[in-house]
Amino acid sequence: TGSHLAEADSQTEWTDVQKKIIPWKNSTPSLDLETAFQDRAAKLGKSNSRLIVVASLIDKPTNLGGLCRTSEIFGASALVVGSLHYIQDKQFQHLSVSAEQWLPLVEVKPSQLVDYLQQKKTEGYTIIGVEQTAKSFDLTEYCFPEKSLLLLGNEHEGIPANLIHHLDVCVEIPQQGIIRSLNVHVSGALLIWEYTRQQVIKQKQQQ
Predict the structure, then answer these.
(1) pLDDT of 82-111, one tens digit each?
(2) What is the number of domains present in the chain?
(3) CATH code, domain with 196
(4) Does the pTM exceed 0.85?
(5) Residue 161 falls within a domain, yes or no?
(6) Residue 64 in contact with residue 152, Cβ under 8 Å?
(7) Which of 71, 91, 119, 164 has a beta carbon 3.0–4.6 Å from 61's, enabling a disulfide?
């Protein structure tokens, strides 16, 4: 939020993130991001999701465009990218099919991720890494908290060790084939869908 950013400004760099919420180009810059999420959900008739998808480590515009499309379709509250310049890339636009016009995009450079993740923890988010580790939870057995932040790894290196230490949990996708890695957009899409599925079930049980 604006107050959080002001307090952290002297200590961190990620406070310079740009907030790109296209449906409200003319809204005040100080608009609280959480309020924007709620407003967006109400205007578009979508669930008031609290899933943040962090793709700052991803390099390929095609993967980012696909994630943007998937995140928008399933009502994620925001997609975090390493640079907003990606949205001008034709490959990104080809895969996103205009989803960037309806999904809040936030710029957080890879070097700013540690501070960003710590900030989100203070806001009550559980930091979830898509990674295979000795203590990873099987996706089929993991229950997503309402306020979930999904950190996706780089196409080649995955999630670096310095960020692994800041994760609350790692979740892995059960696999049966010989090839042991999925495309990062596919991995992200599977977790985004599972979060959405669980939240839909929860909402139905509360009705």
Answers:
(1) 999 999 999 999 999 999 999 999 999 999
(2) 1
(3) 3.40.1280.10
(4) no
(5) yes
(6) no
(7) 91
